Amino acid sequence: xLKAKSIETAEDLLYHLPFRYEDRQNPxxxxxxxxxxxxxxxxxxxxxxLMRTRKMPLFELTVGQGRYALKCIWFNARxxxxxxxxxxxxxxxxxxxxxxxxxxxxxxxxxxxILPDSSDDAETRLLExxxxxxxxxxxxxxxxxxxxxxxxxxxxxxxxxxxxxxxLPAPLLGKLDLPDREAALREVxxxxxxxxxxxxxxxxxxAHRRLIFEELFxxxxxxxxxRRRMRERQGIAFATDEKVRGAIREVLPFHPTAxxxxxLGEIVADMRTPNPMRRLLQGDVGSGKTIVALQAMxxxxxxxxxxxxxxxxxxxxxxHFLAARKLLERSSRKYKLVLLTGSLDEDRKRTxxxxxxxxxxxxxxxxxxxxxxxxxxxNLGLVVVDEQHRFGVLQRFKLMKKPNQPEPDVLVMTATPxxxxxxxxxxGDLDVSILDELPxxxxxxxxxxxxxxxxxxxxxxxxxxxxxGCQAYVVYPVIEGSSDDQPELDFAKEDADxxxxxxxxxxxxxxxxxxxxxxxxGAPQSPEKRVRKGKTADLFPGAAKEANPAxxxxxxxxxxxxxxxxxxxxxxxxxxxxxxxxDADDKEVMMRRFQxxxxxxLVATTVIEVGVDVPNATVMVVEHAERFGLAQLHQLRGRVGxxxxxxxxxxxxxxxxxxxxxxxxxAMVRTQDGFELAELDLSMRxxxxxxxxxxxxxPEFRVANLVRDKxxxxxxxxxAEYFVKNPEGFSETERARVRARLKEAWQRxxxxxxxx
Length: 756
Ligand code: ADP
Ligand code: MG
Fold this sequence. Notes:
By secondary structure, this protein is α/β, with parallel strands linked by helices. It is flat. It starts with 9 loop residues before the first helix and ends in a 6-residue tail after the last helix. It binds adenosine-5'-diphosphate (ADP) and magnesium ion (MG). Adenosine-5'-diphosphate binds near residues 256 and 288.
């Protein structure tokens, strides 16, 4: 029960901080409460009863202070019967709502605690009455509720009094004016009289800051050391002479943007040094990362090394393979390209593995199969990871090279912005290059929201676009219907219970401030305005706000809708189907046909959400748009608007659009700025939800919160760097203490400690 919350040791328990505090020293008076606020009050029980209504039993509690009274309501709460007795003192915490029947307020479903009276033991009274009282998230049922935790933690703190070892170097504590560890632990649990309640609730007391800083300091210190260690390894110093430049010139299909030139410059500068490159290239969808990577790979190849490009899905790998082949055909040099994905047939896999192993394959494009199929490269020089948001995977590149070979350079590419704080902690051991400019000639994408019942108009619109020579995507949340057949799905949080599949192909947005992104491409107009002028103006006048309650329940699936559209509203058009369960050859064929324009409309699942690049596609229709996460919608929209033609994104919503989904859809209509969307996503879901915690390599924090603690993270990073660069500023004892603590923290929290 405790273990499920990662509480295994006494120390863990001490770091399980109260999630809020109640001021029982100066309790609120009932008459100063306002409707809409969430408040904690202390009052006396006046009466309680269970009321049977037609729908469910309601439990009603009346409490009072003098002449003021407050009603509390719990739904379906038969279990409360007999719990309260007149005269008891209770602490209540909940949201206040106006009452219909009287002028009084009522509290709906408050959390409550019956306060101890003179018959209770002194310790309980000491901890719960007349002080700022900590309230804990309950640990496995009521047995381990706040009261239990208060006592255990109090006793633990008593037992270790004077003997909690400090974990940060003393000079650092002095410099930052932070309390020592023991005092901090004591004060976050049992705040001394006079502590600001506002600061407590915000986890902003010096004691809180100290504990948060500690956690972030060891994260950043670990990352800093990793970065150093990597720099010291033997890598490859690539040459960039006229021959290499000539090779690149032969294949470049267009003039690179200034941002592409700059980032390539940064990458190549790393490649020229004899130390391994670990660099992240961030650029919003459509910013042109691929060609930058391809040029870097040509540098490696022209130096006689192999280059590998790893994509998160087979479809993307296949697309990269086809595109690279087409591009490299322009060259007079006969480059040897090889594709390696999991669902290739065994013969082709074996042949390709052989070519890779013997060094005949110069450019290898594939999925995680490159790691999983135990491919051993002959002389791997550069690994590019496209659309990567996972972190642990970096560790595994050593599997790909022969043991006696130098460390290959690694370039990780990612779309959609990741707020800076997350970038710092997720990619803290990478250098970052930013593509903050879109290729010329892009026009913003008009985004509209349409209720299901009006989908007929959408299909008409799609037909019109196709008639003008454009192509369209139509995306569904499931492949075939039942809710558990969707390995490609990454539903947003509140829909998580519908999510049967793994999230390994989920998109995940990450990147950096992209506020400058569109600076060079003309002032961004709101899509709203443009649409009114454009030809869709009359198509979706004032996109409807309500979903159709009559729409049938259950999700439309790609397979079923492909059939329906092909024979119904889109009859006469060439309609293709693409999803993750097709085998590699079929995917390849379908991708190629769509790319060549032999397919007008591609019905698909989210397999197409990352990376797919068909500039002639101008319409992205997403059905059940309310089911998709924000990052995912942004990625999907990024599939269009890649050419010069005006593009459209149409979000069709079914019934039951939750409040959160509303917010996501509105944001999509409002803005195309990936940075803004990522910030919103982060604040709505939190980093753990977005990145998956352990699996994504994102540290699971005990006390820190990357959204709240941005400033402390930056501080921790600065101090960690300082510590590494100025060891002489700390005594040997201090340094030893830091080393020990670092090892422990990383082993336990992140499991990423490498030997050496
Ligand atoms: P992403 O960064 O999302 O991976 P891509 O690399 O797929 O973007 O590029 C998006 C589209 O823009 C592609 O069709 C690509 O050929 C095109 N493109 C990239 N760079 C330029 C450029 N400098 N000029 C014109 N088109 C470009
Ligand atoms: Mg891409």
